[in-house]
Amino acid sequence: MAVQTVYKEPAPLIDRENPLESMMSRFNIAAEILGLDEETYNVLKTPDKQVIVHIPVTMDNGKVRVFEGYRVIHNTILGPSKGGIRYDKNVYLDEVKALAAWMTWKCAVVDIPYGGAKGGIICDPTTMSAGEIERMTRAYTLALKDVFGPDRDIPAPDMGTGPREMAWLMDEFSKTVGMTSSAVVTGKPLVMGGSLGRTEATGRGVMVATLAALEKLGLNPTEVSAAVQGFGNVGSWAAKLLFDKGLKIKGVSDISGAYWNADGIDINEAIAYKNAHGGRLEGFTGAAPMDPNDLLTSAVDVLVPAAVEDVITEHNARQIQAKLIVEGANGPTAASADPIINEKGIMVVPDILANSGGVTVSYFEWVQNKQGFKWTEQMVTERADRIMSDAFEKVYQTSLKYKIPMRIAAYVVSIDKVAQTYKYRGGF
Ligand code: NAD
After folding, report:
1. Residue 6 has pLDDT above 70, yes or no
2. On the CB side of 382, how many CA atoms lie within 13 Å of its CA?
3. Domains plus CATH for the chain?
4. What is the pTM of this model?
5. Is 103 in the pocket of ligand 1 (CB under 6 A)?
6. Which atom belonging to ligand 1 lies closest to the Cα atom of 231?
């Protein structure tokens, strides 16, 4: 059988800031505000563990391709590590390290008992068959069987993965331990221990955070306009729930293009169109096509970037007209744009707070699996909404206390919790 060399494409860093550096520059500011001691700083600036695996997979053409995969455990002082698995051809180690650290901060900001982790495989799932993806997922799980565990490290979906992959992961892991281990992974299909309310959880959290921020800004949701970048899980749910709350969504976009309607887009219509057209908005007639580059700087009150990293940069930040940015995506704002945004007085609900509704309901899924008891959708949403509102208020009050932007305040809240826990647990 022919063996191909490791499938690895160079990471395109052109015009993108290194997400690890972006994360670290905010972490450094918050650490200084807190007066974080040197020992804890040194512990937190590097991941606890990073595993690189090479996974041989028999492709449909009979050849064996070796994929490179990662699992980075940033920190586990607050509990077992939690974080998604990304299948993408641009996955690279520094990105996984940044995403893992963001998970530590995210879980700490919403006060759930998890540490942070992230995983990924360099692959292009759009060109692979279901069988190839299944074999790759099972091989990745086997390679990491000593890392994963319901009380050790609990993966979840991220870009390029979903309930299907989580079901394979759960099944493969369960075989290695000789019993069904539902709580080893979240984001599972509903029939095998997934939680009600998980699909919309991140978009719902974005909605709750947006309403809380509008209240602080003294703006009435029914008199506010918004643009949403990205129309996948997070973007479409955020857009729909904000639309239901009376916001006028003037612009939406996905990878196929951007669409604008000054009178407001009917988001239910846009979602129905997307669902009927292979998950893309391409050709949507409920709004006029616009240059995707103009969406982020369009005349709206609220901007929800819910697609990819580093879309708001020093190059376009000055042109942003929104008064409020709510970060549905992870890392949509490059650190170099922060000073410009702050100078303009734009309120930012940062990613580690704004999109934490997802990990919160993942946590609920894990709790339900451990309890062996299914919660109703109402229990899930009420509890998630309360956690999100409380976390927003805590970050907001911290920003007032230290006279700092919400982004740095979110880091301050998170790092403070982790540092205090280190103080109590000790053990260096
Ligand atoms: P998804 O794959 O469901 O959707 C991504 C969307 O972004 C798609 O509509 C895609 O067409 C669009 N897109 C991609 N590149 C784009 C570009 N350059 N311009 C405009 N649109 C573009 O992914 P998702 O789960 O919605 O995740 C989106 C972001 O939210 C990611 O940063 C992810 O890490 C983050 N996030 C997701 C969750 C979750 O629960 N799904 C939780 C926290 C954070």
Report:
1. no
2. 5
3. 3-14+48-192 (3.40.50.10860), 196-428 (3.40.50.720)
4. 0.94
5. no
6. 9
